[in-house]
């Protein structure tokens, strides 16, 4: 029953995302037909193009037609690029997805082990120094950190070529070498948040009675930390990482602009400027759908890793209350 409710909620949320994606751009001032034809177009030409683009139809009718096309993988035709939106998305989407994946991978392989190393010697010099740096980096926006990385590692140390993006099809090694820097710009602020969150959970676990019992039995702090406390501390962190993954996906769109990466970010900016609603709606729908699916996956994983979680009608069951006691 739990999974059925979650799936129904997922479908309802995705439907709401499609509605917001479509109707939000229907109220924005501006005429896509006028922008495409220019100021010298005659009223007859404008009317003919509006009719061709379906802009004269009722907004509810346009939404139903658009939604039917979405289910078929047809997002319409770009008014600016004169190409099918699905074709444009298929060109740009893999770049954005790879950037987001690299950034999330950096968060997992760098900041989670770093939190464990900090807790081996809690309140030591290393722990205090990393915490100080983390609190500073948490406040730095990804796009601003990207500019700093470009100035220091691009123009200063010349470790990578600014604006030297190469497609993975041409040179995959060169592609990864370039993408690591924008991925770091995304990963560092979100990774430090993950680090602080996980560290707090580990501290909470290390203060519990079962840890004192294990230490009294002769187990070292490192062993208790790695084999017991970390496992329990990771349960709430899974949910947090899911939220971070959604933010990484959204943040990558902005960072792409800073580094000149031809992904969804660049396409989105050009489409908004040109009032290319079909492309803009498709990108917003992709981001919204990805965020919803990530959160749904996190809910499923949390229940999988922690079977004691029982939810019934929004209330905790008897098993939950006994667990808390």
Give me some keywords for this one.
globular, mainly alpha, 325 residues, MetI-like fold, two-stranded antiparallel sheet, 2 domains, 2 strands, 76% helix
How would you describe this structure to a colleague?
This protein is mainly α and 325 residues long. The protein folds into two domains: 2-71, no CATH class; 93-324, Orthogonal Bundle (MetI-like fold), CATH 1.10.3720.10. Helices cover 76% and strands 1% of the residues. The chain has 13 helices and two strands; from the N terminus they run H-H-H-H-H-H-H-H-H-H-H-H-E-E-H. The chain has helices spanning 2-26, 32-37, 43-53, 59-71, 85-120, 125-138, 142-156, 172-206, 209-216, 221-259, 264-273, 277-305, 318-324, and strands at residues 311-312, 315-316. It has a two-stranded antiparallel ribbon. A hairpin with a 2-residue loop joins strand 1 (311-312) and strand 2. Helix 1 packs antiparallel against helix 12. It is globular, with a radius of gyration of 24 Å.
